[in-house]
Amino acid sequence: MEKGIHFDKTLQGSGLRVGIVVARWNEECTSALEQQVIAGLSNRGVTQEDIVRCSVPGSYELVHGATMLIEKEQVGVVIPIGVLIKGETMHFEYIAEAVSHGFMALQLAKNIPIIFGVLTCLTQEQALVRSVGDKSHGDAWAATAIEMGLLAR
Ligand code: DLZ
Question: What parts of the chain have a pLDDT lower than 70?
Fold first, then answer.
C-alpha cells in the first residue's frame, strides 16, 4: 500500500466551521499551504462563509491564534499553518517543541480538534517540496480537519 494517509473519498464537510491560522514566517510556503487547505476544504463541501482565517507573525504565535479562533469564532476545528526551517541556533527546537505541546494541550482543554499543520524541515528545499511542490500537505490537512471536526460534533 502507498505511504501516507488514506481518506474516505465521500468525506463531506458542509456545515462545519473551520478556523485557519497562518504564520507569516516562510510566507511563500505558508501561503501555498493555505491555498491548498482552502481548496481541499472547498472541494469537500466547506463553504467560504464557514472558513474563518487569521494570520500571526510566526509559528510560535500559532497556539494563541488558534485559541482566539476557538474562543471568538465558534469553530469546530482549527488548522494552524506554519513552516519551521532549522537554522544555526536552537530556535527551531524550542519553537517546534513549544508549538506541538501547545496544540495538544489546547485541543484537549477545549475539546476542539487542532490539526498539526506545521512543517518542521531541515532545509528550505524540504519546505518547498512539502508546500509549493508535489509533496504538499495542504489537501491532507484539509481532509484531516474535516474528519476530526465531524468526529468531535
Ligand atoms: C524567530 C523565528 C525563526 C528563527 N525561525 C522561524 C521559522 O523558521 N518559522 C517560523 O514560523 N517562525 C520562525 N521564527 C519566528 C517565531 O515563530 C516567532 O514569531 C518569534 O520568535 C516572535 O515570537
Answer: 1-2
The domain segmentation of the chain, as residue ranges, is 18-152
Q: How far is the CA of 8 from the centre of ligand 1 (A)?
A: 35
Please name which of 142, 81, 78 lies closest in space to residue 113, comparing C-alpha atoms: 78
| Architecture of the domain delimited by 18-152 | 3-Layer(aba) Sandwich (3.40)
For the CA of 57, the nearest atom of ligand 1? 19
Tens of pLDDT along 76-120?
999 999 999 999 999 999 999 999 999 999 999 999 999 999 999
- Alpha carbon distance 126, 116 (integer Å): 17
**Per-residue pLDDT at 133:** 84
Q: What is the pTM of this model?
A: 0.96
Query: With a 6 A CB cut-off, is 85 part of the ligand 1 pocket?
Result: yes
Do 29 and 12 touch, CB atoms closer than 8 A? no
The closest-lying atom of ligand 1 relative to the alpha carbon of residue 86 is: 8
Active site residue 6: no
Which residues are paired to 56 by β-bridges?
Answer: 23
